[in-house]
Amino acid sequence: MSDAEALFAVLRQSADADAVAAIEQLVGAGTDRALNRINVIDFAAENRLSEESAIGAFLHAARLGIFDLSWNVLCPGCSGVLDANTTLKSMNHEEYSCALCAAGYVPTLDEMVEVTFTVNPRTRRIAAHTPNELPIWDYYTQIFWSSGIDLPDESTLDRLIQYITLDFVELPAGEKAILSLTLPEAFLIVFDPVTHAAQFIDVKGEPTRERQSLSLIFNKVRAPTGSMVLRPGPLRLSLENRSDVRVLPAVWIAGDQLHMIFGRRKPFMTAKRLLTNQVFRDIYHADTLNVDQRLKITSLTFVFTDLKGSTELYERDRRSRCLRPRQGAFPCPPGDRGRRGGRGGEDDRRRGHGHFPDARSSAQGGTTDARGDARSQG
Predict the structure, then answer these.
(1) Model pTM greater than 0.85?
(2) Residue 295 included in any domain
């Protein structure tokens, strides 16, 4: 029995059988791309599983080392991954900036942080385990874009990419390159998905035959997105890679076709969804966030449940208070006053109580009673 088979045998003892079978089939026969940054919500729908059973199975698989769990900060504009983390504790920036969208965002757990699963190299090696060797467009689909982007089918995506791309280059660390382009009258973007660097070029005005020049340097410093105006005509674009990894700059036409690629979304597993999952809480307990870590959440539902016997205890205590010579904050219900043979509202008014037709009014009258007792003692 191989190591993977032994791990799946253990997984079957702690997770839903149908979910484990679907995961085992995916690991054995799925494509490399399908095993990278798995969208569990998608996976559940495709395999007709409940989302909770699929999430639980992947969490147990990650605990066993079959998959690696990743917390990714997303750009809500382009759905690009701005930061990838192995733990939620390592998310320590108050704001994340997207050069492609020229915008900054405060991360929220229920909108901007996705949780994905990638097969562990010991389980199966895939191309995404060495991202610096991926072709440029595979890098975009497997590393740059999140699991929440709804990309067109492969043939449509290829057609759209060919339409919007004027040129691109794979530039190794420390290398330089020169691209010679003829600029159309359009809004262009020079973008590198590795360093997240961008340059906006607004091409307008009278066409020119004179060669224009532009130099760009790529490094690990995320500078604000630059913008400049050029005229339609020839351009000499000088590129220099000062980072320690390969970069993949491309020149895009920012038109409707680009938005057709970036604009569609689909559901994904958010950090909020995972943090409220019972299996996750059972496995990781409270060791997920640092005490002083500040992360925002835009919506949260609190569910209050009745502890066993607490309602009866409250009623017994409330009735015992009604029989005391002087009442406290909880006034005696009208029904109890009648059974005690009192004169009802008149006696109550003398004690500082009013006549309360229902429980809501009784709760409000408790404050009045407390004030009335305070005045009489004064």
Answers:
(1) no
(2) no
